[in-house]
Amino acid sequence: MADTEYKEILNELKLQVDDPVGGYFGPGSMAWRVNREVILGFAAMRALLMQVAHPKVAQGVADHSQYRQKPFKRAYTTLKAQQEIVFGDCDTAARILEGISRRHNQVKGHINENGSGVDTYFGNDPGLKLWVHATLIDSVLYIINYLPKPFSREELDQFYRESVLFARLMGIPGDIIPPTMTDFEEWMAETLDSKEIWVTPAAKSIAASLLRLPFRLFLPLNYVMAAGTLPEKLRIAYGFSGSGAYPRLMDLGMKVVRAFIAVLPVRMRWLPPYWRALKRCKEYCS
Questions:
Q1: Residue 9 lies in a domain
Q2: Within a domain: residue 86?
Q3: Domain of 141?
Q4: Residue 184 in domain
Q5: Structural domain count, the chain
Q6: Which of 52, 115, 255, 275 has the most CB within a 10 Å radius?
């Protein structure tokens, strides 16, 4: 997608926003309510490993990033950008989004697809962007079940509808985005079960780097979070030994986290980008 075309999409979406200072979502949105939760950090490893379970995504990361030399920086930059898009004003979010799109335009290369021949990948391929987006949404939906007070199905449906806007902001065409959460759940299950998703040697190499984040000392904890939260197909594909026990261990650990979060003051439970955005809106929103 050309830069000018993408800017037009962002401008069109901005025109639908009631208050651009509040951002594309705003303080009353489910996007803010969900993304402010500190518990989301426990879903990051799952989302990243699911993303690179797509061979073309893994190859793009392997060919165009410094994941071996600077794995923490790459992961942190990705998550920081997501928070800025959700909580930033429209101009800030658009600037971040345009920068991501420009970088993705430079990502292209070739991959030997499962030994069946050479194929080409592009960073701004709508299908690849949809998979990356879907892994984030799926992982968020997974982890927020451990909140002290889980969201209702109606609230989650609203969150998913807002995630469709997030996908459009990422330049994903509306006609390929599952329109409802039920549709999304079915699409995710079918895609995960398909031959499109499989773990390549490149994905395993990336996973080895991610599991050491932010320091090698964290490897056992990250191992549990990965093996305990990934879908069974991917746990096996990544080679997590004895992985059958890890979901139970992760579930027990998250129940402890839930009890801890329940007694935290909201100032500590909700992430700093949310508080900064709320302050901005109190000062400048109409």
A1: yes
A2: yes
A3: 3-210
A4: yes
A5: 1
A6: 52
Longest dimension (CA), the chain: 58
Name every residue whose Cβ is closer than 8 Å to that of residue 90 and which is 6 or more positions away in sequence: 14, 17, 20, 21, 23, 24
Tell me, yes or no, whether 34 lies in a domain.
Answer: yes
Give per-residue pLDDT as tens, 204-244.
Answer: 999 998 888 766 767 888 888 899 999 999 999 999 876 57
Burial 125-157 (b: 16+ CB within 10 A, else e): bbebbbbbbbbbbbbbbbbbebbeeebeeeebe
H or E stretch covering 66: none
Sign, CA dihedral 152-25-49-215, equals negative
DSSP state string for 150-201: PPPHHHHHHHHHHHHHHHHHTT--GGGS-SSHHHHHHHHHHHHHSTT----H
Specify the 3-state DSSP secondary structure of 214.
coil
Encode 8-18: b = buried (16+ Cβ within 10 Å), e = exposed: ebbeebbeebe
Q: Phi first, then psi: what are they for 199, rounded to 5°?
A: -90, 115
Q: Tokens 């402890």 appear where?
A: 256
Task: Find all residues with CB under 8 Å of 252, minimum gap 6, and list them.
Answer: none
In the chain the first and final C-alpha atoms are separated, in Å, by: 34
Digit-coded pLDDT (tens) for 105-133: 999 998 876 555 568 999 999 999 999 99
